[in-house]
Amino acid sequence: MLSDYQKYRLYEILPGVSVWLTLILCFVFTFIKPLWMIYFVILFDIYWVLKVINFAFYLVVAWFRFRKVRKVDWKEKLSKELNNWQTKKHVVFLTLYNEEWVIVKEAVKSVAKAVYDKDKFVLVIAGEERKKIIMN
Length: 136
What we know:
- By secondary structure, this protein is mostly helical.
- The protein contains 4 helices and 2 strands.
- It has helices at about 5-30, 35-70, 75-80, 100-110, and strands at about 90-95, 120-125.
C-alpha cells in the first residue's frame, strides 16, 4: 500500500507523465499502427476544438456578465437591500507567504484607493509562521 506522501507524489507526476507518454506513443504508433495514429490525431483535434469552443463560450458569457455588473451602483443597491449598512465594518484579509513588499504595497494602495469609506474597514496583513519577516 502506498503512503500518503507516495500518493501525493504520484498525483503530482501524473500530468507530466501523461504529456510525455502521449508524445512518445504518437511517435511510436506512427510507425507501428499509422491508421490508429490518424484516428487518434483526428479525435485529439476534435477534442481540442470542442474545448476551445467551450472556453470561448464561457469567456463571452463572463464578459457580458462583467459588463452588466460593472454598471451597478453598489452603494445604492446596498442602501436598498441592507438595513443599517452604515454601521457595518468590514475586515479585508491580505494573506501572503512569499511575496515581495512591492507587491504587498500595491495591494495596500489599491485597497486605500477604494471608493468605500476608509473608516468602515480594517486591513489585516496576515502571513505564515514559518515565513517570518522582520518589518522595519
